[in-house]
Every structure is written in structure tokens, then in C-alpha cells.
Amino acid sequence: MTIITLGPEGTFSHELALKMGCTSIRFASTIHGIFSAVTRGEGDGIVPIENSEAGGVGETLDGLLRFPLFITAEMYMPIRHHLASHVPLAQLRVIYAHPQTHEQCSDRLSAWDIPVIHTSSNAFSALEARKTLTRVRFSLHRLHRSIKYL
Questions:
Q1: Which CATH class is domain 3-66?
Q2: Which residues on adjacent β-strands are paired with residue 3?
Q3: Bridge partners, 26 (sequence order)
């Protein structure tokens, strides 16, 4: 069975799919894209539904209302966010982060007073970080080992 999860490679949902032993994994660019693909019968989906800091994941809750799908399993995965950058914190000009991550880390981000630009996933934030030395990402993933954790 194909598992459809939020992409690109390296998202927390992708990490969970790997931990579950899934071998046929396809990526969607949005959570709604996952719901659409599952509705079309292209596979089963993995979506985040809630977290202890920021509550329910709005896009997932919306998908459960809009699509004729059901929750068939539940998995728990501890999530830790790390700020990573090519430059020291004092030189950061912008932070790229998924909205859920932004909300979960809002106290720290507010204290730094650095603009946050929302992305579709933390893995996408990491890809953005590779484009310029002043962009960073929040993530636990080991995809971009050249980025130093601050």
C-alpha cells in the first residue's frame, strides 16, 4: 500500500512513515493534497492532527470535515524543534517555518524579533535555508547536515 504524506522528504510525517516501516511513500505538497489523493484511492495518508503546544492542526481538521474519509489509526510521535542556520543568531534576517512550528515556538521567536515566513513544511523550510545563508529552518531532520544547530 502506498502511503501519502506531507513532503518534501524529511517532514515529521515522512519520518513517522519510515518508523512505521512504510516502503512505498509518496509526497504531497499540502495536507489538503494528502486528503485529495486518499479520496481518489491513490493510497493511505498520514497527517498530523494535534499537538500539545498549539492544539489541533487546522488544515487536517478542515480536511476531515471536507472529505469523506475516516481516521483508521493513531500514532504518537514526540517532536522537538531546533533552530538551524548557516550564520550566527545575531546575523539572522528571516526565519522560515511551518505555521504549526511557528505557533509552538512563538515565545522564543517573539523574543528574537526576527520576521517569520510560513512554509508548507519544516522540510521545505530547510530547502529554503539552502538557498541563502540568512535563511534558517526549524527541524529535527538530518537531511541537511551542513547546517549548524544554534
A1: alpha beta
A2: 25, 44
A3: 4
The residue ranges of every structural domain in the chain are: 3-66, 83-149
Termini Cα distance of the chain: 39
Q: How many CB atoms lie within 10 A of CB 100?
A: 26
Set of cell numbers at residue 123? 522540510
* Residues of the chain by 3-state class (helix, strand, coil), percent to 5: 35, 20, 45
pTM: 0.72
**CATH architecture, range 83-149:** 3-Layer(aba) Sandwich (3.40)
Enter the C-alpha cell of residue 10. Answer: 524529511
Strand partners, 118: 97
Report the SS3 class of residue 133.
coil
Per-residue pLDDT tens digits for 51-101 = 777 788 889 999 999 999 999 999 988 888 888 887 788 888 888 898 888
d(CA 1, CA 148): 37
Per DSSP, what are the bridge partners of residue 137?
84
